[in-house]
Amino acid sequence: MRNIYSNIFKINNKNLFKAINYLKKKKLVGIPTETVYGLAANAYSTQAVKKIYLLKKRPYVNPLIIHYFNLEQLEKDVILNDSFYKLYKKFCPGPITFILKKKKKSFLSKYATANLNTVAIRFPQNKTIRKILEYLNFPLAIPSANKSTHISPISAIDVAKEFKNYLKFILDDGECKIGIESTVVDLTSKIRILRPGIISPSRISKVLNKKINIENISTIIKAPGMLKKHYSPGVPIKLNQKKAKINEAFIVFGKKYKKGKNIFNLSYKSNLKEAARNLYKMLRLIKSKNYKMICVSSIPKKGIGLAINDRLSRAAK
Ligand code: TXA
Ligand code: MG
Question: With CB atoms 3.0 to 4.6 Å apart as the test, which of 43, 114, 183, 204 could cross-link to 197 if both were Cys?
């Protein structure tokens, strides 16, 4: 299909350098990661970071995740600890974000961290974004590339539809491999998961050799930005439903559900990884088909299922 969006660019050397130049000039770039598409800006520049908040209509109290290329670059801005090194060795680069203490001498714009003394950091795995980070002498502040309260984008077209021509440059690296946002782990004091993701609590527990709590995100004061209403697909959602009316979209999981026009199966094979990848895609599809109500069957509340249930319950709020 021909690309009808003039702000979407395919991956080649010329376009990678264009993206790099945009970022150097403190402009925003729509950028692929393995989890979801992001909206990138120079994390050391207040001028650049402010553009993210304006375009996303994001409250300034909601801090951003800073994306780094390597440890050497990270050490300039944050204080590292043992738990961090263990998890880094096992999972990075990859779909996991760490909350750490910020160094007093950090170069980060105060706007990127909402003036907190902690900072969320991540090493993305996607090859394109890694090439870009390698070329820059600053890290990138990258929230998901959607307007505040909308669901995250998993393709370049999702990003283009979200921001129209207000965003001039989006790199197209196909659909995101994972399809939901990274696991967020707080390592600043008591270790806890603030946002479940593909890397499940039990895998983190195993590496650290201790039990890890998942905090109810809506009660977290540490992340003032963890706003209750988040990931809203724009259609009301009812959770834990056994059936749906014919004019309602029914999101289900597993092969015990019959096929049907209004049935959207996250994974026939009951594979939670596949279900996570399909979640935002199906929510968007359902919205485009003009359904006025979404019912969701129960989805296993363990492993990656925790992340799926977290996103669905926030969407249902
Ligand atoms: O997969 C991802 O993490 C994607 C891709 C683009 O990397 N990014 C992403 O960013 O999901 P965003 O901004 O949509 O979500 C970041 C979350 C927010 O809920 C924010 O409140 C939280 O991380 N956060 C950021 N800094 C924090 C901090 N210092 N303490 C606690 N939470 C923090
Ligand atoms: Mg987001």
Answer: 183
Is the shortest distance between the CB of 97 and ligand 1 below 6 Å?
A: yes
- Per CATH, the number for 237-315 is 3.40.50.11030
Residues of the chain with CATH 3.40.50.11030: 237-315
* CATH architecture observed for domain 8-208: Alpha-Beta Complex (3.90)
The confidence band for 305, taking pLDDT boundaries of 50, 70 and 90, is very high
Locate CATH 3.90.870.10 in the chain. Answer: 8-208
Tell me the two tokens of residue 190. 């008591």
Q: What is the model's pTM?
A: 0.96
Whose CA is closest to atom 13 on ligand 1?
143
Pocket test for ligand 1, best of 35, 64, 311 (most atoms within 8 A of CB): 64
Alpha-carbon distances of 258 from 126, 140, 209, rounded to whole Å? 36, 45, 42
* pLDDT tens column, 5-35: 999 999 999 999 999 999 999 999 999 999 9
Residue located nearest, by CA, to atom 24 of ligand 1:
63
